[in-house]
Specification:
- The complex is a heterodimer of chains A (about 100) and B (about 170).
- Chain A has about 100 residues and is mainly α.
- Chain A has a single domain, classed as Helix Hairpins, CATH 1.10.287.
- Chain A contains 3 helices and no strands.
- In chain A, helix 2 packs antiparallel against helix 3.
- The radius of gyration of chain A is 17 Å and the shape is elongated.
- Chain A starts with a helix and ends in a 14-residue tail after the last helix.
- Chain B has a domain of about 80 residues: Four Helix Bundle (Hemerythrin (Met), subunit A).
- The longest helix of chain B is centred in the middle third of the chain and has 28 residues.
- Classes of the chains: A mainly alpha (about 100), B mainly alpha (about 170).
């Protein structure tokens, strides 16, 4: 019998994998991909709760999350293209313009 | 019974694909693995009765976002990450450990949180375009309109950023 908890744990697993990606990869594009994984973990939790409570509102929220993710990727990838064009690197450790 | 089989099947493939996203050295394989994870997630959405959201997931993520990623990766001609061995080891250990602790804490919280005792089968009309659309254009009308501003801002931002500056 599959319950809400199963879906939530799957969502938490996806979130943790995305977190590993953000913490261990240094390439800007890989960090963006890991952020996508985390977005999808949130989507899964929202849809699971939408079914548990019988409320379609959770699915509407997923619609908004997908829109925000698309906007984030557009700007993020534009910044990545700029970084590789001007700084000749995509390594997040080497991009320290704002640090000092 | 069949729900359990499909749940474990899709979740296993999804988690393996997500791990492959994070662990692959080649960004292009990572993007293709993410595509697989998205399809499994869409299947899970269908099992949860969210048909419209599952279609959106495939159309928007697989169709638009990941294609954008593929374009940029092919455009940029990436070299593999070059890090010193010591730094790579520290980074991996610390990242994996903290994510593991986070996952354990999260699943503990999720299990103890107050939840509805029943997990009803989705009603056939709950996730269709009609029901989601009705809610979207009545209760959530203001956020929906604000979304258009967000997308407009993203378009203008992306175009401004990517524009070549001839005087530099």
């Amino acid at each position: 019998m599959i319950t809400l908890t199963h879906y939530l744990v799957a969502s938490a697993l996806l979130f943790a994998i995305g977190l590993v990606g953000i913490l261990t990869r240094r390439n800007v594009l890989m960090i963006l991909l890991s952020i996508e994984l985390i977005f999808n973990a949130a989507n899964l939790a929202f849809v699971a709760y939408a079914r548990a409570w019988g409320d379609v509102g959770g699915q509407v929220v997923v619609f908004f999350i997908i829109t925000v993710a698309a906007a984030e990727v557009t700007v993020g990838l534009a910044i990545a293209v700029l970084l590789s064009r001007q700084l000749k690197t995509l390594n997040a450790d080497e991009i320290s313009l704002l640090k000092w | 019974m069949s729900e359990a089989v499909f749940f474990y099947l899709f979740t296993t493939v999804m988690v393996l694909a997500a791990l492959s996203v994070v662990l692959n050295r080649q960004p292009i394989y990572s993007v293709l693995s993410l595509l697989l994870a998205m399809f499994c997630l869409a299947a899970l959405f269908v099992m949860l009765g969210a048909y419209f959201v599952a279609a959106l997931q495939i159309l928007l993520y697989a169709g638009a976002v990941l294609v954008l990623f593929l374009f940029v990766i092919m455009l940029l001609n990436l070299e593999p990450e070059a890090l010193s061995r010591m730094r790579l080891f520290t980074l991996r250990t610390a990242g994996t450990l903290s994510a593991l602790v986070f996952f354990l804490a999260l699943s503990k919280i999720l299990r103890s949180a107050g939840q509805p005792s029943t997990f009803p089968n989705p009603s056939p009309s709950s996730g269709t375009v009609e029901s989601v659309g009705r809610l979207l254009f009545s209760t959530y009308l203001v956020p929906f309109e604000l979304t258009s501003f967000l997308i407009l801002a993203a378009i203008i931002g992306a175009v401004t950023l990517a524009k070549q500056h001839p005087h530099e």
